[in-house]
Amino acid sequence: MSRIIQKAACVGGGVIGGGWIARFLLNGIDVAVHDPHPEARRIVGEVLDNARHAYRAMMNAPLGPEGALTFHDDLAEAVADAEYIQESVPERLDLKHRVFAAIEAAARPDALIGSSTSGFKPSELQVGMAHPERLFVAHPFNPVYLVPLVEVVGSPVNDEAALSRAMEIQRETGLHPLRVRKEIDAHIGDRLLEAVWRESLWLVHDDVATTQEIDDVIRFSFGLRWAQMGLFETYRIAGGEAGMKHFIEQFGPALKWPWTKLMDVPEMTDDLATKIGDQSDAQSGMHSIRELERIRDDNLVGIYQALKANDWGAGKTLREMEDRFFERAKDSAAAAAPDYAAPLVLHETRVPGDWLDYNGHMTEYRYLQVFGDATDAFLGHIGMDAAYRAPGRSVYTVESHIRHLAETSVDTRLCVRTCVLGHDARRIRLHHEMVDEAGNVQATSEHMLMHVDTNAGKASPLEAPLTDRLARLSRGQRGLTAPAHAGRPIRDIGWPEPV
Amino acid sequence: MSRIIQKAACVGGGVIGGGWIARFLLNGIDVAVHDPHPEARRIVGEVLDNARHAYRAMMNAPLGPEGALTFHDDLAEAVADAEYIQESVPERLDLKHRVFAAIEAAARPDALIGSSTSGFKPSELQVGMAHPERLFVAHPFNPVYLVPLVEVVGSPVNDEAALSRAMEIQRETGLHPLRVRKEIDAHIGDRLLEAVWRESLWLVHDDVATTQEIDDVIRFSFGLRWAQMGLFETYRIAGGEAGMKHFIEQFGPALKWPWTKLMDVPEMTDDLATKIGDQSDAQSGMHSIRELERIRDDNLVGIYQALKANDWGAGKTLREMEDRFFERAKDSAAAAAPDYAAPLVLHETRVPGDWLDYNGHMTEYRYLQVFGDATDAFLGHIGMDAAYRAPGRSVYTVESHIRHLAETSVDTRLCVRTCVLGHDARRIRLHHEMVDEAGNVQATSEHMLMHVDTNAGKASPLEAPLTDRLARLSRGQRGLTAPAHAGRPIRDIGWPEPV
Q1: ipTM of the complex
Q2: Which residues from B are below 8 Å from A262, CB to CB?
Q3: Residue A147 and residue B224: Cβ atoms within 8 Å?
Q4: Closest CA in chain B for residue A58
Q5: Within its chain, how far is the Cα of B32 from the centroid?
Q6: CB burial class (10 A; 0-12, 13-18, 19+) of residue B264?
Q7: I need a labelling partner for B77 at 20 to 30 A (CA). Which of A421, A469, B6, B152 fits?
Q8: Could you tell me which residue ranges the 3-hydroxyacyl-CoA dehydrogenase NAD binding domain spans (chains A, B) (predicted)?
């Protein structure tokens, strides 16, 4: 499965540009960066650190190789052979126009150009361009490597095929592109945020609530709902069986109540700015910005995984991204000729923060999760995929024996070495060894796997291609010495003398 | 650990009242309900079904016994001995006044009275009351049994001690009360929602976006962020090390841009109402309302658990709720004299939706999670708590042998029977048997536990009170016959004939 594009270019780093760089890089796409800011490499590096931490925690799939990252003092050199170019320079129209002119002078004629702008319309950006039809707005949200939405906006001159292609590329990096049908100031998301922002400023200004209280209202009420369903769907449920239109008609009159001060905007005086700054310090000052970023990202990763369990919203986006990573890993494995004279390495992972127990180390059942994932990788390797299972064949684990040999810390990169200990027509006896980066054995497991007819609910013989691939594998591995502990029971330690 | 109150009363059922009933009931508090609506019992029953499903999935702790639920045609009878009374009748001031008068005539003098109103201020509600100081607004969010926020608002006549007591009671039901410091129309949350609602109506009215597009913008961007951090904290991070005040000063000028149409409100014509209804049907009509409720709640439960892994926001609220449930279970267990002549039942749980594998059954490692939780319950039972561990003593699992005997389905209520197979100065050999409601054995596990000095990183002898309690337990259980499979290895099945 090849990459959708070979090369992207990012003009402008910073937090937003850095997030785009991370998206491309971690999805195996080479990125050339041009940013004259003296701190560009450091800032991009920090964003990449955050992104790698988040992806390791979030993805069950192996991350695979990153793309190559290069920095270029010359903008023309950076964009020269890029198929997709993302602009994330400061929000000044004259600066953006100069940047687009420079890009056009050097880029491929078919290169797509997206702008991260929050405030300008595509038609404003396109003024003076030779080929405005390939420039569009692609407005992301912070942190770009984790928040999936990108608002894609065109003007009447835009080439629909180019916009579709741009969104296809964005999807391959795990983004969720949304085509905004008309160009308007601030697109959609920032308009909604501006509405909440204004009302919040009034509440602070009038001492009705502090920044902490407003934030807690959000994250303990509708903020939770909105991670998975938006405004209209939530109200549809509230409206019940009578339906959405009925709900609207009942709810309509409320709009005339003097509920909001939205008719007006409070003046941002120095006093108001200071008040907000002080309240924010009181609310969040116990953490540095880097700490807050890490907390935020760990939370977002968890929310992604929660929604993935239900294949919903952002969780579905994550699952699709994982499927692509799994595909790539499978292709890599298939391409490499496996050496069956040694234990197979089919699964790697890293220990995320939410795998720890009250002793502060990787908790017991996560070992079995890692071993289970290694068993799944083994089964995939011998040909058990969704197509094999579809008519009603599967492999169940009927017995597992785990030895915990070391305490495993957060962030440890684990790799599992697998060998077959024996097999017959229906069963496979498997051994896994979990090692850290230094090769220290963290744990071992031994499993009995049983091939089953899932319709009949009973054991059944393995079928092709599993039989052939397993035979080939076991011929190679039969020469390996079985680990000394394999085939042993848990030791009987008896009882102390009666008291 | 006794219940904070014995009895609550709910005047008005419906979706909101039903949510309050669920909160009290599932936290072991008796609830008397008065609602003259002919469908009251059915509607409340449906809310309780949803709530039970959600709590079973969400809570690792045993749910314990529910409170008693009674319906009363006579309001006076319903409120008579209630310590906390929650009103959730329709949003009509005259009706609420009549209800408060009837409550006051029959309630205890020290009963606290909360109103679920979204639109009235406490001073408006309090008009005509004999003791207005014990009436306050306690405004919840749908679904009340899951969304933690309750906005608590008083007027100048309110008794601060009564409000504090009310919030203490609300916290005991897993709510997150937020004291709103001034009474204003719609409190805080609904004002923010109204702001987004108005802007969204304009976007639909002007055909800039459909209901689906607006909802997707929300749930794929800032909705995800707001499940864990609010507006101000998010902006603080975006502002970086320069600080919040600097961010505000930079961001201030944007407020003057013509970004929003918030100066005005679109007229809710029949055409606009129909357009919204049709778009909502296209977006969400593939699911019934009950299905959407179930999807919503499963997502919210997952989000709660994700945040609990980081002890953050609503996740911290969940952990505190679980701690209370664990305490109650421990007290129940301590109160009951354990029968050590039989296997001990120390852990029960139910299989939630996100525990399933691609075969649609409980996935392999979750069995070890359940067995691990049973081991933790056993260790707690013999006295290993945070205080025992604090100086550097703990118990690690060094070996586990699991036999999977049946496929376990979602929602199955599991219980684990535990017995000690042997022990010496440093080690305990433990056996768990996992059964379903019908007593069918789903799986068994055998474990070797090792007592360790966590500072030295080596095995060490068990100490009091573990030694005494373990001795007492094992004397009782020594008579039990060890399961036949205990102490056996995973069977060696050899290799097929070479081809």
Answers
A1: 0.79
A2: 195, 198, 262-263
A3: yes
A4: B306
A5: 22
A6: exposed
A7: B152
A8: 7-182
Measure A412 CA to nearest chain B CA, in Å: 18
Residue B154 structure tokens: 């008083």
A17 annotated among ligand-binding-site residues: yes
Return the minimum-mean-pLDDT range out of A376-390, B6-20, B113-127, B304-318.
B304-318
The string of pLDDT tens digits covering residues B399-452 is: 999 999 999 987 788 999 999 999 999 999 999 999 998 999 999 999 999 999
Is the Cα torsion angle B339, B340, B341, B344 positive or negative in sign? Answer: positive
On chain A, the residues whose CB falls within 8 A of the CB of B306 are 299, 301-303, 305-306, 354
Q: Does B109 touch chain A (CB under 8 A)?
A: no
| pLDDT higher at B242 or B390 | B390
Burial class of A323 by CB neighbour count within 10 A (0 to 12, 13 to 18, 19+): exposed
Residue A60 touches chain B, beta carbons under 8 Å: no
Instruction: Supply the CATH classification number for the domain B7-179.
Output: 3.40.50.720
Domain locations in chain B? Answer: 7-179, 189-286, 337-491
Q: Chain B neighbours among A 331-370 (CB < 8 Å)?
A: 353-354, 358-359, 363-369
CA-to-CA distance for A196 and A183, rounded, in angstroms? Answer: 21
Do the Cβ atoms of B181 and A254 come within 8 Å?
no
> Does B244 have pLDDT greater than 80?
no
Fold match between domain A189-286 and domain A337-491: no
Q: What Rg do the C-alpha atoms of chain B give, in angstroms? A: 28
Distance from C-alpha of B490 to C-alpha of A398, rounded to nearest angstrom: 10
Instruction: Let me know: does B204 contact A244? Beta carbons within 8 Å.
Output: no
A280 pLDDT band, cuts 50/70/90, is: confident
Residue B257 pLDDT:
46
What tens digit of pLDDT does each residue of B314-373 get? 888 888 887 777 677 666 666 666 778 888 988 888 786 667 776 778 989 999 999 999
B221 neighbors A186 (Cβ within 8 angstroms) = no
Residue A451: helix, strand or coil by DSSP?
strand
- CA B179 to chain A, closest CA, distance in angstroms equals 9
Which residue of B lies nearest to A371 if distances are taken between CA atoms? B365
Residues of B in contact with A474 (CB under 8 A): 495
Q: What is the DSSP string of B436-496?
A: -TT--EEEEEEEEEEEEETTTTEE----TTHHHHHHHHHHHHTTSPPPTTTTPPPPP---P
CA distances from B291 to A230, B40, B214, B397 (A): 16, 21, 21, 41
Note whether A78 and A99 are within 8 A (CB): no
Q: Distances in Å between the alpha carbon of A176 and those of A148, A359, B200, B215, B374?
A: 5, 39, 20, 13, 41
Residue that is written with structure tokens 């741009």 in the block: A166
Sequence letter at residue B451: H
Distances A427 to A283, A480, B407 between C-alpha atoms, Å: 58, 19, 17
d(CA A381, CA A398): 20
Q: With an 8 Å Cβ cutoff, are B223 and A221 in contact?
A: no
Q: How many CB atoms lie within 10 A of CB A336?
A: 8
Q: How many angstroms away from the CA of B80 is the closest CA of chain A? A: 31
Q: How many CA atoms lie within 13 A of A445 on its CB side?
A: 29
Q: Judged by CB atoms within 8 Å, which residues 126-165 of B form the interface with A?
A: 141-142, 147-149, 151
Are A218 and B192 in contact (CB < 8 Å)?
Answer: yes
Fold assignment, A189-286: N-(1-d-carboxylethyl)-l-norvaline Dehydrogenase; domain 2 (1.10.1040)
Separation between Cα atoms, residue B348 and residue B168, nearest integer Å: 28
Bridge pairing between strands B112-115 and B135-140 = parallel
Q: Is A12 marked as binding a ligand?
A: yes
Q: What is the CATH number of domain A337-491?
A: 3.10.129.10
